[in-house]
Specification:
- The complex is a heteropentamer of chains A (about 325), B (about 650), C (about 150), D (about 350) and E (about 130).
- Chain A has twelve helices and eight strands.
- In chain A, strand 5 and strand 6 form a beta hairpin.
- Chain A has three domains: about 1-110 and about 155-180, no CATH class; about 110-145, no CATH class; about 180-325, no CATH class.
- Chain A has helices spanning about 1-15, 60-65, 75-90, 110-115, 150-155, 185-190, 195-205, 210-215, 240-255, 265-270, 275-290, 320, and strands at about 20-25, 35-40, 70-75, 95-100, 120-125, 130-135, 140-145, 165.
- In chain C, strand 3, helix 3 (about 80-100) and strand 4 (about 105-110) form a beta-alpha-beta unit.
- In chain C, helix 1 (about 20-30) crosses helix 4 (about 115-135).
- Chain C is of the alpha/beta class.
- Chain C has a single domain, classed as Rossmann fold, CATH 3.40.50.
- Chain C has a four-stranded parallel sheet, sandwiched between helices.
- The longest helix of chain E has 15 residues, at about 85-95.
- Chain E has nine helices and no strands.
- Chain E has helices spanning about 5-15, 30, 45-50, 55-60, 65, 70-75, 85-95, 105-110, 120-130.
- Chain E has a single domain (about 5-100), classed as Alpha-helical ferredoxin (Fumarate Reductase Iron-sulfur Protein, Chain B, domain 2, Orthogonal Bundle), CATH 1.10.1060.10.
- Classes of the chains: A alpha/beta (about 325), B alpha/beta (about 650), C alpha/beta (about 150), D alpha+beta (about 350), E mainly alpha (about 130).
Chain lengths: ~325, ~650, ~150, ~350, ~130
């Protein structure tokens, strides 16, 4: 597949359809390819597409849209939701974008492999359902499915929402493992407030306020985040107090509520492994329950749940009535 | 840094009895920025205002905090005082230490402590206040009346008589409305047409009134003083300038099977029709859905018989765009559907009718030419039963929670008229209560009982069933506590009225608020009964609540006066507390635009200089004349680019901080 | 930091009231002399839709023990639709705070019309009682803002 | 040299913590970071790299400098107390220890940073040799020997034993205080371990990076390299690399209005942030490329130029494993250094 | 346990879930009732009797055994008062006061009658099983 992508990209570069290609470039370890622009067919020799190309390239298209000429971008099925959402918010330029929807077998979480005690990784290759890992401490094996990023264990499906052409995404392709993505949210909801508070204290206290979650998030596309401006006296660079962790993450989740496509990038990049997607999914779950099923990024013109209403919407008191445990 | 003056009002003893005013002054004086603090008996008095003006001059104050009654009471007074002393009126903030403090707390210690905090919050806010300038907007000297019933006609006449142009938009082919369907009117029993027709003619002839019949309001933009309205003139298929109103076309039209709306479907009409003889304009319309020419392309009889050559099958809908300073809603009512009241057999028996249908039956121009007869066999009835409160005063979803107000009186009228004209007909009225507030109303009802021998029974009917050509009415007499089972020939249901179903659509276009029953909400139930809370929108007739003709006419006049009062102004002062977007922070994401109820936000491609980075960005721009200052956009905006002047993020946060300190 | 256990707990309560209905409702409660605890302090906003979740969190940060938002009844908003947006925003925010383990009785939305002085007063009495039962807000506060 | 059985470590921690604060790697919510030892915490000495380095213990992510209050028109200032009690940091690695030396050059030279100086004066560092170095490690490039951490006390895990050797006076003093728990041991016990570590390090993919081109003379050449424009593109401008780095020392000073006063505090800053070095007139680095370049030029060129050739990267590899866009200093060294 | 009439009235409201204050005394319940003529106290009176605390009369009334539980009154009441539920509640109160079932389930079949409405049976059996 990688070869097919490179071939097609070369064609599109050569025939002038696009002047640059946004894809992933081979890293210097077995698992760290980086998002990269390729400006000529020659540069494409470093192009890579494998399970570690988890990075969602949609957000880079905000910057690419401002550059001269058209850009070819490779988007995995779930990345296309983000791209659509960005179209809706007038943040990307669809006209200047050529989208190749690429098939996806699921993307991998290197930390899951490392946490299993596999150290000194030199290279990783896939053999059927198994990852063969060459390390300085010998060769190891790891089941492919066990290395999937959390988001890929609850895959939204293999259908691209927006594209100009598809490669490696054949019709009727099987969806990835479709777990219940709200399982953990439900588990938390079933806890007592004390337990929930302890859970989040434990998680959020790890936050180092590096802003990786925000900066990678395709929904966080503000030119200047409220947490970087003085509009609400909210500009803080560190969590001096636990309140700031709560404030930052609650407001961030709130700002992307109804716009978050659940792409899972926030949790993927968090250096402290905070399950940030659980905040976003809580909003998604609530929105689905209160206002009817909604998937951000499925279309480019519907009203987002928070810029919409019905006369019969539930009252905020539902939170108390529904109650959970106390 | 602001130089703030704090003025604490005693309000006689209203405040001073429970709030230690001196302590509030003392505490306020210590707040940062405060350079002057004093108290006075009545700050709102001329002497009190003078104190503010003097302090502004002497101490060079830039911000004012008045600790007094509710800002809803005297905010304007103090703003004006500040303005007279040369500072911007929006540099004044009120701490409400009367309604929100002294009047509800008994303990002096507690009340004083709270007053200090409220003062502190107002000081914190005023520190961040910025001078705001009110703009002005023009007033278009023309009014629009939506609905051409008696309410709309009367309003239009009164406005036109005051010398302003008025347009009436009426959905049906003729003005006249419900009143034109009525036979007689209570309590004087004069003929409805006899009193309505002259008004219709007067409106049509008035040189300041333009009537758009068979037309609907399609789009409304703008705001008080300058609404822009698109009116859709539906294709009449008859050229109004050529038609003489001779009526031959209607006679010759071969398609005569369409239920006649004007007669409530009790008979049929032709496809080309005028709803009734006195219609204004007296120009028919072709009902394209039922016209053979439009359905099959063949026919064209009307065109052939029209001497004036007025028939125009090619006519298209036309959009008229017009600006108005004020809009009056007079959309009236309809009766509710009775499909949920099976117990009364309305949908199964033609002899069970609504009161409005009875009006048509009683009317000389109606389906029976005014003869009282059963619709099933066209025989005159020997007995009739009237059932009150059908769908009114209902707690469940089948009906309406309110009293329809007019039914008691028209039922008495019907009963009386029938007993008068057909003395051998037995008339029984089943009622829950008889409600007759109004001049000469109860006397009217008593005459029906005492002089005309109408039999009033207290108790609701449980069931009406058809049985051998008769109607079996099962009821109860609550006074005698006995079952009533009676056979009758006709049953008349006093059906609840409800606002015209189109009103919700119109209210949305006008951003006028509406209650759960679809009645338009008035700005104040007692003091502003003919104004909608949306500036420039006025209410006339039943669209605001159930009422009879005299009340409707009175309200129509009142609405007209309010409109005239508005149109008489040369310009309006706009609210300066509007939203404002910081173009350096704006992402152009359109969230704000989506929640703006006034369409005040648009987007522009704009060249910005963001700390040295020059680029063209899509940014939100607020039209301050349209913005009403609700602030919905400020919260929809994730980046904090959108802020509300006078209630800015930082001002509100400062208040929060001051309260929680 | 020592919290005086013997001292009676006086909660800090911020009430955001829309200018057209609820603020007027509070005025009516005042002119009708319908008492409610002085712990409640009202901030006037043009519409319930003006209230940003950040205002609510800020209040808690600064030591508020409860925050209540009052607006016109749905359908009666002066700006037609403001409270519908507020309703969605607050529903989701409150649900999120609950999810984080913050006691959900600390936040409340109540629709109070200009005519409902009684309702305003009853609501505030109830809310203060609820906050009393929940005690001091420790889960959403900022230690730096505690007066010591 | 002393030794103690691994399973008796809790006793050792308790003994050290008895008289002073003890910071060590603690597992919490699936991540390991330095924290204060108590009996309840889950100590984690198996994880090679804590998420944040031990830098925190000497230069915390945020700390209050002073608070001030205005009452009745009078301003009072209350400076924060400097650390005046001894404490121990247990479990740092050779690279992190070198990181402290990088910080020392910044904070202990004139003007001395009194907050940092006080902590350095009172802190004793016990460092552990890296039993199983990982592929992201490249400390060797900077002349650091992961088998011989240069702290106050060096320690080695061999089998079921911890070996302990004081290297400085502070280390001696600490050793003295807990000596009762130890038994004497022979230096030779750790020789094999050291050799093994060094052998692994030789095999690590990044152990032989070429730094020869990063010299002060080439400053302008490197600064003007067109490669920056290409390299920075995937950068998300987050602060992950900065905040996990053991040598990053930039901080911002901010005020927090508590409602009843103001707390002035400092917190780590990141050169990746758009408001880094933001001044009244604006920002002299207007693009992300410039900020990106700043980070690596500082680590590899400016700092060594001012500090006798000492690089301000210690090869811990945290940025290598944590960068959300898989960018890192290794890729920069290779690219600019001419390897890739 | 002994209750005052007022307490009994409260209990009736609680069991039935009926808010007697909602009644506007229109009489539609009685007008709809097929068993009206058989009753000594009529459906609409049940509402006012309970409202006025006159429970003794209701407990003695034969109407409670005449009500067919056809729910016509519930269906048609404009105020959503549900008189049939009130009658049912009085019935329950009588049964409970008598201290249990006075008909055993075996006795029920004997009483079966072809013309008996199904609803009555269902309701009667519910009554006896309590």
């Amino acid at each position: 597949m990688q070869e097919r992508l490179i071939e097609r990209a070369k064609e599109l570069l050569s025939d002038g359809t696009v002047v640059r290609v946004l894809g992933w470039k081979q890293g210097d370890l077995g698992y760290n390819p980086e998002p990269a622009y390729f400006n000529s067919p020659e540069e494409l020799k470093d192009f890579v597409y494998d399970g570690f190309c988890g990075a969602n390239l949609s957000k880079y298209m905000i910057a690419a849209g401002k550059m001269e000429g058209n850009t070819l971008v490779f988007l995995k099925p779930c990345d296309t939701y983000s791209f659509n959402q960005l179209i809706k918010e007038h943040r990307v330029n669809r006209e200047k974008t050529y989208i190749i929807g690429v098939g996806c077998k699921g993307t991998l979480d290197i930390d899951k492999i490392k946490n299993a005690g596999i150290k000194g990784i030199e290279s990783i290759s896939q053999d059927g359902d198994t990852l063969k890992i060459q390390t300085i401490y010998g060769e190891k094996e790891f089941p492919f499915n066990d290395a999937l990023l959390e988001r890929c264990t609850v895959c939204k499906g293999k259908t691209h929402q927006v594209y100009d052409e598809l490669i490696g995404a054949e019709e009727g392709e099987e969806a990835g493992p479709a777990g219940n993505r709200f399982e953990m949210v439900e588990k938390l909801e079933a806890m007592t407030p004390e337990e929930r508070f302890a859970f989040w204290q434990n998680e959020l206290s790890k936050c180092i306020r590096c802003n990786a979650c925000r900066n990678v998030c395709p929904a966080c596309s503000c030119l200047k985040c409220v947490f970087d401006s003085n509009k609400f006296d909210s500009a803080q660079k560190a969590n001096v107090d636990t309140f700031e962790e709560q404030m930052f993450h609650v407001i961030r989740a709130f700002h992307v509520a109804g716009r978050c496509t659940d792409c899972g990038e926030c949790s993927r990049v968090c250096p402290q492994g905070i399950p940030l997607h659980l905040l976003n999914r809580k909003f998604i779950k609530d929105i689905n329950e209160f206002y009817g099923p909604y998937q951000a990024g499925e279309d480019t013109d519907s009203r987002a749940p928070l810029t919409d209403y019905t006369f019969e919407d539930v009252e905020p008191g539902i939170v108390t009535e529904r109650g959970g445990k106390h | 840094m602001q130089r703030i003056g704090v003025f604490v009002c005693h309000c006689g003893t209203n405040i001073a009895a429970t709030v230690d005013v001196a302590r509030v002054v003392e505490a306020a004086a210590k707040e940062p920025g405060v350079v002057h603090a004093e108290d006075y008996q009545y700050m709102c008095s001329e002497a009190g205002q003078l104190k503010i003006r003097e302090a502004i001059k002497e101490k060079n104050l830039t911000g004012i905090v008045v600790c007094s009654c509710s800002p809803r009471m005297h905010e304007n007074t103090f703003r004006q005082a500040a303005e007279r002393a040369g500072i911007n009126p929006y540099m004044v903030e009120i701490a409400n230490i009367r309604e929100h403090c002294s009047w509800i707390h008994k303990d002096i210690e507690e009340a004083t402590e709270k007053a200090v905090i409220l003062a502190r919050a107002a000081i914190a806010k005023v520190t961040l206040n910025a001078p705001l300038q009110s703009g002005t907007s023009r007033v278009v000297k023309r009014a629009l009346v939506i609905g051409g019933g008696i309410a709309g006609i009367q309003t239009a006449l009164d406005i036109a008589d005051a010398g302003y142009e008025v347009d009436i938009v009426e959905k049906t082919p003729s003005i006249g409305g419900r009143m034109s369907q009525l036979d007689k009117t209570f309590p004087t029993l004069d003929c409805s047409a006899c009193i309505l027709t002259p008004k219709m003619v007067e409106a049509a002839a008035h040189d300041k009134i333009t009537i758009y019949t068979y037309s609907e309001v399609e789009k409304v933009s703008g705001f008080v003083g300058d609404f822009q309205v698109d009116i859709r003139k539906k294709a009449r298929s008859v050229d109004m300038s050529k038609c003489t109103g001779c009526g031959v076309c209607q006679e010759k039209c071969p398609s005569k099977k369409t239920p006649n709306e004007f007669n409530r479907g009790l008979n049929t009409r032709s496809a080309i029709y005028t709803p009734f003889a006195q219609a204004i304009p007296n120009v028919p319309v072709i009902d394209r859905e039922n016209c053979i020419k439009f359905k099959t392309g063949k026919c064209g009889v009307c065109s052939k018989v029209c001497q004036a050559g007025a028939i125009d099958y090619e006519q298209k809908d036309e959009i008229v765009t017009q600006n108005y300073g004020a809009i009056v809603v007079a959309t009236g009512f309809d009766t509710i559907k009775l499909d949920k009241f099976d117990e009364y057999s309305y949908s199964t028996s033609p002899d069970v009718i609504t009161s409005l249908e009875l009006e048509r039956i009683m009317n000389a121009a109606g389906p029976t030419k005014g003869h009282l007869e059963r619709m099933s066999d066209h025989k005159p009835p020997k007995s009739m039963v009237f059932i009150q409160c059908v769908g009114s005063r209902c707690a469940d979803k089948r009906g309406k929670s309110y009293c329809s107000k007019i039914c008691c009186m028209y039922t008495a009228k019907h009963a009386m008229l029938i007993r008068d004209k057909y003395p051998d007909v037995e008339v029984t009225v089943f009622y829950i209560d008889v409600r007759t507030p109004g001049k000469n109303f109860d006397e009217f009802y008593r005459r029906a009982v005492e002089e005309y021998g109408v039999n009033y029974i207290k108790g609701q009917v449980g069931k009406v069933a058809e049985k051998g050509g008769k109607l079996l009415v099962q009821g109860v007499d609550l006074i005698d506590n006995k079952r009533i089972l009676m056979e009758t020939d006709m049953v008349v249901l006093a059906t609840a009225i409800e606002p015209n179903p189109d009103v919700r659509k119109i209210a949305t276009m006008l951003t006028a608020s509406i209650d759960t029953n679809n009645f338009l909400t008035e700005s104040h139930a007692k003091l502003r009964p003919v104004e909608s809370p949306t500036a420039g929108i006025f209410l006339s007739g039943v669209c605001q609540g159930p009422k009879d003709i005299p009340e409707t006419v009175a309200q129509a006049g009142a609405a007209a006066v309010k409109v005239v009062g508005l149109l008489a102004k040369d310009h309006l002062v706009t609210n300066p507390c509007t939203a404002k977007s910081d173009e350096l922070l704006c992402n152009g994401c359109s969230s704000c635009e989506k929640v703006c109820p006034y369409g005040a936000i648009s987007y522009e491609e704009k060249e910005v200089n963001d700390h040295g980075i020059r680029e063209t960005r899509r940014v939100a721009v607020v039209n301050s004349a349209l913005c009403q200052g609700c602030g919905a956009c400020t919260v929809a905006c994730p980046s904090g680019a959108m802020d509300l002047q006078g209630f800015s993020n930082r001002q509100i946060l400062a208040e929060v901080d001051a309260i929680c300190r | 930091m020592q919290v005086e256990k013997t001292q009676e707990f006086r909660p800090k309560i911020v009430a955001f009231c829309c200018n057209w209905c609820s603020y007027a409702g509070a005025d009516l409660a005042g002119s009708s002399r319908l008492a409610y605890p002085a712990d409640v302090k009202i901030i006037r906003v043009p519409c319930s839709c003006r209230v940003n979740p950040m205002f609510i969190l800020r209040a808690f940060q600064r030591g508020a023990d409860g925050v209540i938002l009052c607006g016109c009844h749905p359908g009666d908003c002066h700006y037609t639709t403001g409270n519908y947006y507020a309703r969605r925003r607050m529903t989701l925010l409150f649900s999120m705070l609950d999810y984080l383990g913050v006691e959900n009785g600390r936040t409340r939305v109540e629709w109070v019309s200009a005519a409902e002085g009684v309702k305003f007063s009853t609501t505030m009495n109830e809310f203060v009682a609820k906050i009393h039962s929940l005690g001091e807000n420790v889960r959403l506060g900022d230690l730096r803002c505690k007066k010591d | 040299m002393y030794q103690i059985k691994k399973d008796r470590l809790p006793e050792l921690f308790a003994a050290m913590a008895g008289t002073q604060d003890l910071f060590l790697p603690i597992r919490k919510a699936d991540q390991t970071n330095y924290g204060l030892w108590t009996e309840e915490v889950q100590v984690d000495l198996d994880t090679l790299k804590t998420v944040k380095s031990g830098k925190d213990c000497f230069f915390p992510q945020s700390e209050t400098l002073y608070s001030c209050k205005k009452e009745d028109g009078k301003l009072s200032i209350d400076p924060a107390k400097l650390t005046d009690e001894p404490f121990v940091v247990f479990g740092m690695r050779a690279c992190d220890v070198q990181g402290l030396k990088v910080l020392d050059n910044v904070f202990l030279n004139d003007p001395v940073d009194s907050f940092y100086a006080a902590r350095r004066e009172h802190g004793t560092v016990v460092a552990i040799a890296c039993h199983e170095p990982e592929e992201t490690c490249f400390c060797k490039v900077f002349g650091i020997d992961a088998a011989n951490p240069a702290a106050d006390v060096a320690a080695w895990f061999v089998g079921e034993e911890l070996y302990w050797k004081a290297l400085t006076e502070k280390g001696e003093a600490l050793t003295e205080s807990v000596k009762a728990l130890f038994t004497e041991a022979d230096e030779s016990a750790v020789e094999e371990e050291k050799k093994q570590i060094q052998a692994i390090i030789e095999k690590l993919p990044f152990s032989h990076l070429d730094l020869s081109r990063f010299t002060p003379e080439r400053t302008m050449e490197l600064f003007d390299s067109p490669l920056w424009e290409e390299m920075f593109k995937p950068c998300l401008a987050c602060g992950t690399c900065t905040f996990v780095c053991p040598t990053c020392q930039c901080y911002d000073i901010k005020d927090f209005d508590t409602g009843s006063g103001v707390q002035r505090y400092r917190c780590w800053d990141s050169c990746m942030y758009s408001d880094f070095t933001m001044m009244a007139h604006g920002n002299m680095r207007t693009s992300q490329m410039q900020r990106f370049r700043q980070r690596f030029m500082h680590k590899l060129v400016y700092y060594p130029a001012n500090n006798d050739g000492m690089f301000s990267c210690v090869g811990c590899g945290r940025c290598v494993s944590k960068c959300p866009a898989s960018l890192n200093i290794v890729k920069v060294i290779k690219k600019l250094g001419g390897e890739a | 346990m002994h209750r005052t009439e007022q307490e009994q009235a409260e209990l009736l409201k609680e069991i039935s879930g009926v808010d007697t204050k909602k009644c506007m005394k229109c009489g539609k319940c009685s007008a709809s009732c097929p068993a009206y003529e058989e009753m000594d106290i009529r459906p609409h009176q049940f509402v006012s009797y309970v409202q006025n605390g006159d429970v003794k009369a209701l407990l003695k009334s034969k109407s409670i055994w005449k009500c067919l539980s056809c729910f016509a009154c519930v269906e048609r009441c404009p105020r959503d008062v549900k008189p049939a539920k009130l009658i049912e509640a009085v019935r329950l109160m009588v049964i409970r006061e008598r201290g249990g079932n006075y008909l055993t389930p075996d006795e029920v079949p004997e009483l079966l009658d072809e013309e008996l409405p199904q609803q009555l049976l269902a309701s009667a059996f519910r009554k006896y099983s309590k």
